[in-house]
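Sat 14:20. Reprocessing the chain from the morning session after the first attempt stalled halfway. Input below, unchanged.
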Amino acid sequence: MQVLSEITGLSDKDCFYIVERHKNKFDYPLHRHREYELNFISNGSGVRRIVGDSIETIGRYELVLVTGEGLEHVWEQGSCTSEDIREITIQFSPDLFDTGLLSKNQFDSVRKMFDEARQGLAFPQDAIMKVYSKLDTIATVKDSFEQVICCIQILHELSQFEGRKLATSAFAKAPRNSESRRVETIKEYIHKHYAESIQLDTLADLISMSPTSCSRFFRSHAARTITDYITDVRLGNAARALVDTNESVSVICYNCGFNNLSNFNRVFKEKKGMTPRDFRQVYKKTKIII
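Finished this time. Tokens:
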């Protein structure tokens, strides 16, 4: 099985593709595309959103940016019963903002937002309210140049807020941002050896610190504990294996560094909201053969 590779409506001669829909049903399959996408949904309480290995039920308002070319995503009907779901989708090419433009000071926050959105980025309610007036009318703006300016303003305003990453970096295969050299050394080791037993003493030796100092240093710079990071990397790789292979749950469990199947099931459900088998089943129902 493969994920649908969508050919979007974006023309080579246009900066943005903007479409507004009013509907009572989501029926488009799980898909991916090269284009960046900002998706707004209102009156969609109960809709199920899948972005990578993140599966969540959304509330009344939803605004998500996806910039990962290979990152699967879809919005499904879920338990939503609304007769008037409003969806506004803005798609644009990664080439629109070339590296020269994104390297400028004025676009620094936008560049950082695009990097984070490789894992899918859900914006908080206050960010949605900040750009709502522009989103509300953007599809009906007749002057295409004004539409372009409005889209750039929306992106800039959103970049001032802290969005919530959805998919794990391991599942999305997203490049890690440059960080402290020591933190990056630890992360690189974990990504290479997540299937093995990883000892704090080993990580501490890599950066010439004591285990206690290493643990404290990583937490202060990465905003999470080393144990939490290892768990997230293992779960991301496990979720990817559940989607891309037919290996049994027990095999995936041990191949991804978990040494106890019941613990793997418990942690997976705690983090993903469902068991590994249920997670695999969601993807099987959502995928189509192409």
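The two ends are 8 Å apart (CA to CA).
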